[in-house]
Amino acid sequence: MKISIVIPAHNEEACLADTIRAAQAQDYPDFEVIVVNNGSSDRTEEVARGFPGVIVVNEPRKGILWAREAGRLAAAGEIVANMDADCLPDRDWLSTGSRFFKDPKVSAASGPYDYFDGGFLFRNVSLYTQMTIYWLMAKVIQWKLIRAGAVIIGGNAMIRAEALKKEGGYNTALTFYGEDTDTAKRMSKYGRVVFSNRLVMKTSARRFKAEGIVHLEMKYIKYFFKTIMGKGEK
Predict the structure, then answer these.
(1) Which residues are 88's β-sheet partners?
(2) Strand 192-195 vs strand 87-88: parallel, antiparallel, or unpaired?
(3) What is the pLDDT along the chain (234 residues), one digit of tens a residue?
(4) Could you tell me where the beta strands, DSSP code E, fall in 38-155?
(5) DSSP letters for 75-103
(6) Which of 99, 218, 96, 197 is nearest to 153 (CA)?
(7) Which of 195, 45, 20 is nearest to 106 (CA)?
(8) Cα–Cα distance between 105 and 213 in angstroms, integer?
(9) Strand pairing category for 87-88 and 79-83
(10) Does residue 234 form part of some domain?
(11) pTM above 0.85, yes or no
(12) Number of domains in the chain
């Protein structure tokens, strides 16, 4: 299966080059890299165009799902792999994730974030929490007697392009918070959404550093449950 890596980027000139290099270094045999310049005012587009083979798409409407939707429409792959512009995937990220799609009943796959530049305690506690609580939550809310949705980490997700097409693409009414839960919930209609501890993505803890760990975690939890209950972003 061909895989399309989609990287939304808004003013990401500082970290985008490392992310593209990591994406292009994948050991998977058939993939493309798409960078969506999401209304940047810095050198983001110039940085992306400096890498041979990278497809650059401009989406002036700001919002993570506007960018992902533009990337989806430009993608040629059977699987759309979502990363953020500060992610550093291991070389076997695509190879590991692609194995889940050998099961035709799987519509999407995701896994934990590893906040590589966070402090020792935050990095390890966060990873452990995702590998236990997130993993368990992913099982529980897809249980046939509940069927409330699924769990996806937005910048560490692989989704069948056909399922996204059937759903009419991403929900561009959402700007940020709850977008991954909304996507997971939508994809759960088309098959099983896997949350695997084998599919780990290194990413930056910069947002936690800027907003505060407790404050941001509470906000993520709030919008997770609001989205699961169908109330969306407010």
Answers:
(1) 202
(2) unpaired
(3) 999 999 999 999 999 999 999 999 999 999 999 999 999 999 999 999 999 999 999 999 999 999 999 999 999 999 999 999 999 999 999 999 999 999 999 999 999 999 999 999 999 999 999 999 999 988 887 775 456 678 999 999 999 999 999 999 999 988 767 788 889 999 999 999 999 999 999 999 988 877 777 766 776 666 566 665 664 443
(4) 55-58, 79-83, 87-88, 106-110, 113-115
(5) --SSEEEEE-TTEE--TTHHHHHHGGGGS
(6) 197
(7) 195
(8) 36
(9) unpaired
(10) no
(11) yes
(12) 1
Tell whether 189 is covered by a domain. Answer: yes
Measured over the CA atoms of residue 167, residue 130, residue 201 and residue 226, the dihedral's sign is positive
Structure tokens at 7: 């990287």
CATH code of the domain covering residue 72: 3.90.550.10
Helix (H, G, I), strand (E, B) or coil at 56: strand
Summary count for the chain: helices (H), strands (E):
10, 10
Cα gap 24→45, rounded to integer Å: 17
Task: Please report, as a single letter, which amino acid is at residue 122.
Answer: F
Please tell me the number of Cα atoms within 13 Å of 94 on its side-chain side. 26
Written as six digits, the tokens of 206 are 């910069």
Look up the domain containing 50 and give its range. 3-228
Task: Give me 14's structure tokens.
Answer: 């500082």
The answer to whether position 84 is within a domain reads yes
d(CA 84, CA 36): 10
Residue 233, domain member (yes or no): no
